[in-house]
Structure formats: structure tokens, C-alpha cells
Amino acid sequence: MTWNKQTLIKMLMTAVSGAAVVSASLPARAAEPITLHALMEDVPETKIIEALLPEFEKQTGIKVEFEKIGYPDMHDKLVSQLTAPQSYYNVLEVDFLWAGEFPAAGWLADLKPFVEKSRYDLTPFIPSTLDLLGRTKDQLFLVPMYNYSMGLLYRTDLIGDEKLKAAYKTATGKELALPTTLEDYVAISKFMKANAGVAGAAMQGQRGDPNSMEFSNYLFSAGGSYLNADGKASLDTAEAKRALDLYVDNIQHGAQQGAVSATLDDTMRLMCSGSAFSMVTYWWMLPQMDDAVKCPTVAGKVGLSVMPGGHGESGGWGWGIPKNTSPEEQEAAWTFIQWVQSKDVSVKRALEGHAPVRSDVYTDAAVLAKYPFYKTAEGVVSTGKSFPIFTYSAQYEDLLGTQLSLAAGGQATSEAALKAASDGLQGLLDK
Q: Where does the record locate the signal sequence feature (predicted)?
């Protein structure tokens, strides 16, 4: 049979038309469900959120999977993904110490367009928690996740013990009471070690993040700062020397044996066991100490106060979205961020010991009924001051931590350690 050109074209068009009809009659293929992957620090806060994830999946159909690891390994593992063509982690937990580095490197999506499009209300967030994560008038790269401002945890039974009160009055001429100055705190710490059979302070002196964060509380309480009004390093000051002298005095004469190499986990175990009078630490650890199952020796006997001197170290984590993910993943990530930081979910988290970043959670009746100390905690958060946040914050922790260790171990004078720490800070700022 011979086919002319017109006949072939007509047959082809008929075939295409028929195929279109068949295709249209088939159900559309469902979009692949999105799974969000997040690298999370292995701490109580992560477990609190993880327990609520089935609720989110039920509401949205979006699955969220947490990969939990220790803090020291998080930064490098995240960076390797954020510099790849496409990140496996499509929703991010970002420490405030990286809040300068990650946006400067161009790794994070600006969340302001997401906020505007969804009309997400940021006003309930405590302003300091947003500022801590580097928000500006024009851009928002991180939404606060939880706060870890630091205050003083102390044993109420020991500070109220009549025999100890009498002994302290005899020894010092002062009443044994909750300290309001840094000097009083260190004096009470040393007294408790000498008279109460416990370490006066459970201290995390390990070089790097542990001792840098711990010392920051002493610095701010002594009226010192890392930067002056012009943004220049200002650690070689009388206030900073006062802070470091008291820090060294406490770690040498008030703290537990081995404090110069101790971590946060070490101090938690010490306080939980009833073997310490106090610890300068993250305020959200009080619910852990009040757990009668985990810490039966001290449950109900631990109080919280703002750092003696009026200011502690303020820290926190934020949620971010990596730029090197698909638009669909970014939308799913934003849906998750809105849900996990909503008032309802934040209250549920707070009832399990979460450290809120929303002011309306600190005043929630159910939260205050279970945790009356959240009223004090809001003061800890609102008065907290920040470690310097810039591209090299993490590197500066190591530099500062080295100098603090040298001073604590008696290998450097306070003046020499502070001069090196101040010069090192300025050098990194100049980069």
C-alpha cells in the first residue's frame, strides 16, 4: 500500500489525539511525599520535639526525621552539606554562634519573604532571641527555636540550712543568702566546699565552648564585655580582670576536682547526684534537676536565679532553610517551622521542659502552674548578653578557651590571658 504525505500526517495527528485522551483519562500521579531531614543536637530539647513529630505528619503529610549527634560534630557536618550542590538536610537547626557565618557564606534562604507570604506573626518572640540570631530590618535568616541563656542553679536546702548559716555568719560576718554579686557567689562557693561536704560549684572548664560560655557569665556579671561601643575587642579591662580572677579562684578553690577538663554533661551528673551546691548553667536544666526519677537526691531542692551581678550569657538555636534545596522542600520546611514555633506546640514543649523563645509561653497559665520558676527564667532570658557573633565566632571560642585554660591551670596570669584573648578577638574581627 502506498501512503501519501497528507495521509501520514492525518494518521499521526489521530494517534496523538487518541493518546492524549487516554492520558487524560488516567488519574494524575501523586506527588512524591516530602521528607524533611534535620541534623539535631542530642539534647533534651530535641527529644521533646521528636515526640511531637507524629502530630505534624498527621496534620500535613510531611514526614520529619531527626539525626541526633553531639554538638562538637554538628558544624562540620552541616557545612559539608551546605557547600554541596544539594543539601541532604533541608531544614536546619543553627546555633547562634554560626548565625554570622552561615548567612555571610550565602548558605541560608532569607525567611522574610516566607514570613510575609504566610503572614506569620513574629511579635510574640522575645526581641533578644531574634537579635541573637542576627535579624536585620531587611532580612531574617533564622527563626528562634529555643533559648539557652545561663543563670545560677543552687541548692535551696543548703543555703537555708541553719548550721551552715550560723557557720557562714561566724566566718564572714554576713548572712548566708542568695548571692547578688559575683564576689559573694565565689565566697559562698568556697565556703560550701569547705563546710558542706560538696563542691561549691560544678564547673565546665573544658577548653573551647564549655569554658568560653561559662566564663562569659562572670564577664557580664562583672560589668565587662567582649566588644566596646565601637565594635572593637575590649577584654583587657579592669572589669574583665575582675571576672577572670574570680573565675580562676572558683575553679581552683570552689569547684569539683578535675573541673578544668569537665564538660556540661559532667556538671549535670555532679549536680544531679547532690554532690554540688551550685552551677552556672543553662536555665532549662532546672526541670532536669527536678525530675524525681532521674535526680531523686536533689529534686525539689534546686532554685534558679539571674546570674549574680545581673547578667548572664545568652545563647540560643534557630531554625533555618538551606538555599541549596528545592522550592518544594523549602515550602515544606517553612510549614514545619511555623508549626513547631506556634503557641500551642511551644506550650506543649514547655510543659516537658522546653526553653521558650515566645513571651506568651512564659505567661501561659498551664506552664506557670507546672513550672512557677518560668517567671524567673524570663528574667534570665531578657537580661542575657551575647558572646560576639560574627563569621569566626566558633574559632574565637577555641582561642578564648585556650587562654582561660591557661589561666585556670596557673600557666598564665589573668592579664596575659586577657591580652592574648583580646588581641586574638581583634585579629579575627579584622579578617
A: 1-30
pLDDT of 1 reads: 38
SS (H, E, C) the chain: CCCCHHHHHHHHHHHHHHHHHHHHHCCCCCCCCCEEEEEEECCHHHHHHHHHHHHHHHHHCCEEEEEEECHHHHHHHHHHHHCCCCCCCCCEEEEHHHCCHHHHCCCECCCHHHHHHHCCCCCCECHHHHHHCCCCCCCCCCEEEEECCEEEEEEHHHHCCHHHHHHHHHHHCCCCCCCCCHHHHHHHHHHHHHHCCCECECCCCCCCHHHHHHHHHHHHHCCCCCECCCCCECCCCHHHHHHHHHHHHHHHHCECCCHHHCCHHHHHHHHHCCCECEEEEEHHHHHHHCCCCCCCCCCCCEEEECCCCCCCEECEEEEECECCCCHHHHHHHHHHHHHHCCHHHHHHHHCCCCCCCEHHHHCCHHHHHHCCCHHHHHHHHHHCEECCCCCCHHHHHHHHHHHHHHHHCCCCCHHHHHHHHHHHHHHHHHC
pLDDT on residue 101: 92
Question: What is the reported pLDDT for 31?
Answer: 54
Q: Average pLDDT for consecutive 10-residue bins of the chain (431 residues)?
A: 38 38 34 88 93 97 97 95 98 94 96 97 92 91 94 98 98 96 98 98 96 97 95 95 98 98 96 98 90 96 96 94 98 98 97 91 95 90 88 92 98 97 96 89
